[in-house]
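*** Query protein ***
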Amino acid sequence: MIRSPDRATGSGWRKSSYSRGNGGACVVVAAGLPGAVPVRDSKNPEGPHLVFPGSAWSTFISGVKTGRPSL
C-alpha cells in the first residue's frame, strides 16, 4: 500500500513555481513516495487526490515542457 502525504497538515505537498499566486486553478504534487506521484487540486486540499506512477508523471512533465503532452 502507498502511504499518502499528510492531507491534514499539507506536509509533503508543493505547488509548481510556474503557478500564479492569484488563487487560480493549480495542482499540487507530493514528493517522497518511491515510484508514485500524488496530485491534488490546490483549492480543495481535503478532497480526493490521484496517484500516478513516477514514470508516467515524468513522461507527462517532459511532454508539457516540450509543448507536446501525451494523454
In short: The two ends are 26 Å apart (CA to CA). The mean pLDDT is 78. Helices lie at 54-66.
